[in-house]
Write a structure and sequence with these properties.
The structure holds two protein chains of two kinds. Chain A has helices spanning 2-14, 18-28, 35-45, 57-69, 75-83, 89-98, 101-116, 126-138, 143-152, 165-168, 174-186, 206-216, 289-298, 303-318, 338-350, 355-363, 379-485, 490-675, 680-776, 788-798, 801-816, 821-824, 827-844, 846-856, 871-878, 881-897, 903-915, 921-932, 938-950, 953-956; strands spanning 219-223, 229-233, 239-242, 249-252, 273-275, 284-285, 784-785, 957-958. The radius of gyration of chain A is 56 Å and the shape is elongated. By secondary structure, chain A is an all-alpha fold. The chains are: A mainly alpha, B alpha/beta.
């Protein structure tokens, strides 16, 4: 199933990963791909989209130096590295690190902390323990061999006495050791399974806990007459446990997590010890359970051991395990990349547990060189979103398939676990029966002792009586013979009679003794039979025990196999699950982004709409004001015209009256003139009057016409007015409509603007999730805090303390024991000198490291991988005399050294020293400004700069 | 997977599924120090009224007979009388006349049986609420309180231990809760180390250092911010606040009259410091009074030591009550065990854990109560027997911390207090 799914996934992964194609090419060409490429290929399989970015040379140098040397690079190393144009310079630098004595120091520190968790000096001191570790690491002793030496250590071999610290600093306490062996060598914290099967972790069983415990239960700390402490072992002792939940009791034979039972060899009682226990004598059993633990765990056949070690080596380079936390490897918390972990575990075995070559492959993988953040290029994200959208359905169905496979395996496993439990119960009963039979035999033997002794005593008494009788009878017969020869000798006769009497008495006693002996002999016989029967029973029960043990071993073997399949299946489910969940995150993120895009577009749209509504409104407003002014104009014209019409109208009446008067005057004059037709004067006068009438008449007519014209004009104006008023109504409603549209758009805009921050924060949340996913799938690297030791050595490197110490040691050595000229050319001797300098300088500075550890390290016996930050750490850096002393001294020295240099140079150098990079322009400007303002106390200014940079997150973390 | 023990309950199944689910989701682990950033609303209620705990550790084993549970005129009683207190019917040793006047604020627990006569183990049990086991280490009360009562903008440490002598630093008493909750040790009541600027560094220069640091962080963290970097940058600001509040640790800033009232000796000064620290918002303060391990001359010794203890302790109780702080401050006077009723031939009393007492005050505790009884001459508990685990539950309940809750630490759920025990409900109001 494992390989089946692997094959399928290649098609999926193939489209994405360049590394993958590259590896395929290598496979096609028939070459075994390098582990680093296989790592990249496995990692790429589970990524959703493409990953290309790698860190710069300067970043790589800092990252890998902290990981392998335990310190930041010096400015000289950085400059040299950056100046090199060699294409393989990264690999060369890694090789240089791995062969450096600083690597030995760093790994010694690391494995010390990992295995001892800063436990106090107890039993065996830290010194010999670290010598043991550093000797082994220097000599490139395989890691499984180092583990074997630790797990089998008894403190007797003086050359490896330090190895016994693992056991003896824990007081040899078997439960503490069970827990820590589980954690450090098998990656499983079984503590919760001490009293019952783990309630939360389905594959952590009480039997797993006591399986380890059974290897240790015979071991104990032993102090000999010379007060030397050992971890000794007896040949007796059984582990058993009882669940606080079920109350069931089980005997437990030694058993490795994920392994099978290791039953003791059946040794006769008198052959169980090489050195038998006695007062002040350290016993040495013929068969050591602990040695067996050490051998079986480390011989490369135990998958849990191999995986744990591979996982921890991955953690060294990556700052997290493929399974994390490191001591909770379980079905329910499977690794993020379980097939990669299995690959690493297999490779570790193939590479013979070689620390250096293994680490080298990891740090030279592309995966190791990912930056801590994605490149600023936004298109990467959109590619991941669309990849997620395209892929998710098929990944979901892969997940469903994997989950179904897991479920069916789980059912099988549950059945086997039930069978296992029954078999264990039977074996426990059989073991109990052996114990009962042994007890019965002892009882029978005890019960038989008395009658057997009595029968033997009776037999002896009978024999004695027989002898006595025989002698007496012989004497009596001899005496009788004598009496026959001398019948008169009465004394003789008397004596003979006495013998006869005694012989008769003895005969009676003999009969009695024979009866008694016979009786007791039969009693003894039945007691003997009882013993023989008990012996038979014990043989029988031993056989039954062996049979049940064989059955248990068989079920256990199947269980171990199934457990392996289950592990792989669970790993696959977890991998698909996180891929699907990451894809969901990406899709969510993409949706939110497009929502934001849409909302931005709508914003733009509304803006446009608003603008056109705005201009429509402006036009309407202009029109309105134009109409209004025309309206005003017309209205005043109307008023004038009306007034004129009224005036004209008012003129018509007097004119008509005048006309009437004139007409009457004319009529009268005409009539008067008719009477005297010859009166020309009169006629003339009448004509004059009539003429006047005509004048008035035409005046009246004119006025009438004018009035009509004025009235017409009024009507016209009124019509125009009505038209304009109508237009105005139209324009006003237009105006109102535009205003409404604008208000609506403003409301919408306000809504959009209001929802923008909420959307942004949802996007930020989603971005956090996808960033976490990117980290989870190794597309970006984790920001890792430096360990207390890394921080101490890096601070000492940045302030020059370490380099100066080494220089001082070197010159002292050169003075005390100069290397002869021929040795100067001898690589081995030079390396040895180099090592001695490193060792001495680091040892001299060790107390400073302890000061860092006391502030930055977790408590003894507590997990040391958890990051924490407390105020006292900040105070230690910014105010503490140790670090501030280093900074002050460095600043004084540098101020002198740089006295003739411009502030730009000083700023650059300070950045190179602490952050292994030059400042960017903004940074340089800021620092230069600060330095310029403090030309009088330049040393103090430099100290402040170093202080600030050493307190920065960029220094505190590996990135 | 199937639940493999008798109950086979659904709850276990669900819990395990959830566990698996959560783990598979992954990637969003909360770093220990940032718990408050993701704190559920329920816990926030605590913050509305900050609670405090003051533990007075009577090193060496205080005699219950010369303090909280006198047995005058019996074969075991010794020379001292019992005196009435401000609570009718409750008597304590005549060595504590000032304390007797405060009895109406106090709560006595007189039926303790811890079955442990070893100093180290007894002290461990009383301060962790658990028996020491080889493969597991438990956090001390101070760490549990500091974590449970942690507030968002806390600038002072939450867990302070004042020692009679020695230098300051960080204690190793938080076990799996992590060093963030370890005690800040104030050697002889002095402020924490490194809280003053280094010699020659003016506050102006310090401002420059921090400005440059902040700018450097802003630039670096614009690439990537994580929970860890947040904690890290925050912790420098916290350190600055601590420096600014340095005088909180300076007991000489208390009024001269108060210094007089508490006494100039170490214990008096430390009690006053405890009051001062609690008033400034510190969650947990432990002071100690040494050394009660009186295998010889038990009576002269208790006469002197109780004499020194009585007044400052009574002042502390009275002051906190006067200032309205006792309602949310728990005071615990404990020891690793008591002392034997039998008086040995050196007029001493030896280690004794079968029937002894502690004195409590404040929080949700019933005032003026005396819970539990020993028999006539104090050789056994007659009524109301309790042990270290019950006391531990009671301490937490008294300040409103759910002792049946769990801490989530690095993907593991760890019970706050021994899940097989429970508080002494009878003395909780």
């Amino acid at each position: 199933m494992h390989s089946m799914v692997r094959g399928k996934s290649h098609q999926l992964a193939g489209c994405w990963a360049l590394g993958c194609c590259l590896s395929f090419a290598l496979v096609a060409a028939g070459a075994e791909p390098r582990l680093r490429d296989r790592i990249d290929r496995e990692i790429a399989r589970w990524q959703i989209g493409p990953v290309e970015a790698t860190i710069t040379d300067a970043q790589f140098l800092r990252r890998v130096s902290i990981d392998l040397l335990g310190r930041i690079p010096t400015p000289e190393e950085t400059r040299e590295f950056l100046a090199s144009t060699d294409a393989t310079k990264r690999e060369q630098w890694v090789d240089r690190c791995l062969s450096s004595p600083e690597f030995v120091w760093r790994m010694t520190e690391l494995f010390d902390v990992m295995w001892m968790e800063r436990r106090p000096e107890q039993g065996i001191k830290t010194g010999p323990w670290r010598e043991f570790l550093s000797g082994a690491i220097r000599g490139n002793v395989p890691l499984n061999e180092i583990a074997r030496q630790i797990l089998s250590a008894d403190g007797a071999d003086d050359r490896q006495r330090g190895a016994a610290r693992f056991y003896l600093a824990r007081g040899g306490e078997s439960h503490l050791l069970t827990r820590d062996i589980g954690r450090f060598f098998f990656g499983r914290d079984l503590q919760c399974a001490q009293c019952h099967d783990h309630p939360l972790v389905g594959d952590y069983f009480q039997a797993d806990y006591y399986g380890i415990h059974a290897f240790l239960v015979r071991s104990f700390p032993f102090t000999d007459a010379k007060k030397k402490l050992f971890f000794a072992e007896r040949a007796e002792g059984q582990a058993s446990f009882q669940s606080v939940f079920t109350g069931e009791r089980r005997f437990m034979a030694p058993r490795l997590p994920g392994g099978t039972f290791v039953f003791d060899p059946d040794l006769p009682t008198d052959q169980r010890y090489k050195v038998a226990p006695a007062k002040n004598v350290r016993p040495i059993p013929t068969y050591s359970r602990r040695a067996e633990l050490a051998r079986r765990a480390t011989d490369g056949t135990n998958p849990a051991f191999n995986r744990n070690l591979a996982n921890r080596l991955w953690w060294i380079a990556m700052g997290r395990g493929l399974a994390d936390p490191l001591d909770m490897l379980s079905l329910e918390q499977p690794p993020t990349h379980s097939e990669l972990l299995d690959l690493l575990a297999d490779e570790l075995v193939k590479q013979k547990f070689n620390l250096r070559s293994f680490l080298k492959e990891i740090v030279l993988s592309q995966t190791y060189s990912r930056p801590i953040a994605e490149p600023a290029d936004e298109s990467l994200r959109s590619r991941w979103v669309s990849a997620a959208q395209t892929g998710i359905e098929s990944w979901r169905s892969e997940l469903a398939k994997a989950a179904a496979a897991l479920a069916s395996l789980q059912d099988q496993y549950d059945d086997v676990a039930d069978q296992w439990d029954q078999a264990a119960a039977k074996w426990t009963d059989a073991t109990d029966a052996v114990a009962a039979a042994s007890k019965a035999l002892a009882n029978a033997e005890k019960a038989a002792a008395k009658p057997v002794a009595a029968a033997e005593a009776a037999q002896k008494a009978q024999t004695e009586t027989q002898t006595k009788y025989d002698r007496l009878l012989a004497a009596a017969q001899a005496a009788s013979a004598a009496v026959k020869l001398e019948p008169s000798d009465s004394e003789l006769a008397q004596a003979a009679t006495l013998f006869r009497t005694r012989a008769d008495a003895a005969k009676q006693a003999l009969a009695q003794a024979s009866r008694t002996a016979a009786k007791l002999a039969s009693a003894a016989e039945s007691a003997r039979r009882a013993v023989a029967e008990a012996k038979g029973k014990i043989d029988q029960s031993r056989k039954a025990q062996q049979t049940t043990a064989a059955q248990l071993a068989e079920v256990d073997r199947r269980r171990a196999e199934l457990s392996e399949s289950l592990w792989q299946a669970a790993g696959l489910v977890a991998a698909w699950k996180s891929k699907v969940s990451a894809a969901e995150h990406w899709i969510d993120y993409g949706r939110l982004l497009s929502e934001q895009q849409q909302s931005r577009q709508r914003l733009a749209q509304f803006g446009q709409q608003r603008q056109s509504a705005e201009s429509a409104r402006a036009a309407a407003a202009a029109k309105q004001s134009e109409l209004m002014s025309r309206l005003d104009e017309l209205r005043s014209k109307l008023t004038a015209t009306e007034r004129r019409a009224a005036e004209l109208a008012s003129q018509r009446k007097p004119i008509a009256a005048k006309l009437e008067v004139f007409r009457r005057a004319a009529d009268a004059a005409t009539a008067a003139a008719k009477l005297d037709s010859k009166d020309a004067q009169l006629a003339q006068a009448a004509a004059t009057i009539a003429q006047r009438v005509a004048t008035v008449q035409s005046q009246a007519a004119r006025t009438a016409a004018e009035t009509d014209a004025a009235n017409n004009e009024v009507t016209q104006i009124r019509q125009s007015l009505a038209g304009i008023e109508k237009q105005l109504t139209g324009v006003q409603s237009q105006l109102k409509k535009s205003t409404e549209i604008i208000a609506r758009i403003d409301r919408e805009l306000a809504q959009l603007r209001k929802s923008a921050p909420a959307l942004q924060s949802r996007i930020d949340e989603a971005a956090k999730l996808v960033t976490a996913d990117l980290e989870q799938c190794y597309a970006i690297a984790r920001l890792r805090p430096l360990s207390p030791e890394q921080l101490a050595w890096s601070t000492m490197t940045a302030t020059g303390v370490l380099q100066r110490q080494k220089a001082a040691v070197a010159s002292k050595l050169e003075k005390e024991s100069p290397l002869p000229a021929d040795a100067q050319k001898d690589a081995a001797k030079l390396a040895e000198r180099h090592r001695a300098i490193e060792q001495t300088a680091r040892t001299q500075l060790q107390s400073h490291v302890r000061a860092f550890v006391s502030v930055f390290g977790a408590g003894p016996g507590q997990p040391q991988e958890e990051f924490f930050a407390t105020a006292d750490q900040a105070l230690f850096m910014t105010n503490g005399p140790l670090v501030q002393g280093w900074i002050g001294a460095a600043a004084n020295r540098l101020a002198k050294e740089w006295a003739d240099q411009p502030p730009e140079f000083q700023a650059d150098q300070a950045y190179w020293l602490v952050l292994s990079r030059p400042p960017n322009d903004t940074e340089r400007r800021e620092v230069v400004q600060m330095l310029n303002s403090r030309s009088k106390d330049r040393a103090a200014a430099i100290a402040d700069l170093l202080s600030a940079l050493l307190a920065s997150a960029e220094f505190r973390f590996n990135h | 997977m199937r639940c493999r023990y008798a109950c086979r309950s659904d709850q276990h199944q669900i819990a395990r599924r959830k566990f698996l689910g959560d783990m598979a989701a992954g990637g969003t682990a909360v770093v220990g120090g940032l718990a408050w950033l993701a704190r559920p609303a329920a816990a926030r209620q605590l913050e509305s009224q900050q609670k405090h705990v003051i533990v007075i550790n009577m090193h060496g084993g205080l005699s219950q007979l010369e303090s909280w549970d006198p047995k005058p005129k019996t074969d075991t009683g010794g020379p001292f009388r019992a005196i009435p207190t401000s609570v009718p019917g409750v008597h304590i040793s005549e060595l504590l006349p000032e304390t007797a006047k405060q009895m109406h604020h106090l709560t006595l627990v007189r039926g303790i049986n811890t079955k442990e006569n070893d100093h180290g183990k007894g002290a461990y049990m009383m301060l962790t609420g658990r028996r020491r086991t080889p493969a597991a280490d438990y956090p001390k009360l101070g760490a549990v309180v500091a974590k449970s009562l942690e507030t968002r903008d806390q600038s002072l440490p939450g867990h302070i231990v004042v020692t009679p002598g020695g230098s300051g630093g960080r204690g190793n008493d938080a076990a799996y809760l992590g060093p963030k909750y370890s005690s800040v040790v104030l050697g002889n009541g002095n402020p924490p180390p490194n809280t003053t600027l280094p010699k020659g560094v003016s506050s102006d220069r310090d401002a420059v250092r921090h400005r440059l640091r902040r700018h450097a962080n802003e630039r670096f963290l614009s690439q990537r911010r994580t929970a860890m970097t947040d904690v890290y940058t925050y912790n420098y600001e916290q350190a600055l606040q601590l420096m600014a509040k340095r005088e909180v640790f300076d007991v000489s800033r208390e009024p001269a009259k108060d210094q007089q009232r508490y006494g100039k000796h170490d214990f008096g000064r430390h009690c006053l410091l405890a009051r001062r620290l609690v008033e400034h918002g510190v969650s947990f303060v432990q002071v100690s009074h040494s050394n009660y391990d009186t295998h010889n001359e038990n009576f002269t010794f208790h006469f002197e030591q109780m004499g020194e203890f009585d007044r400052p302790f009574a002042q502390l109780v009275a002051d906190l009550a006067d200032r309205g702080m006792l309602e949310h401050t728990l005071i615990v006077v404990l020891s690793e065990f008591g002392r034997t009723p039998r008086i040995n031939n050196r007029y001493g009393r030896d280690h004794w854990s079968a029937a002894w007492s502690v004195c409590l005050a404040g929080g949700r505790l019933q005032r003026g109560a005396a819970y539990g009884k020993t028999n006539a001459n104090g050789t056994a508990v007659a009524d109301g027997q309790v042990d270290h685990a019950m006391l531990f539950h009671t301490y937490l309940e008294a300040i409103g911390v759910d002792a049946t809750g769990e801490f989530e630490v690095a993907g593991r759920s760890l019970p706050v207090a021994d899940p097989s025990s429970q508080p002494i409900d009878e003395i909780l109001a």
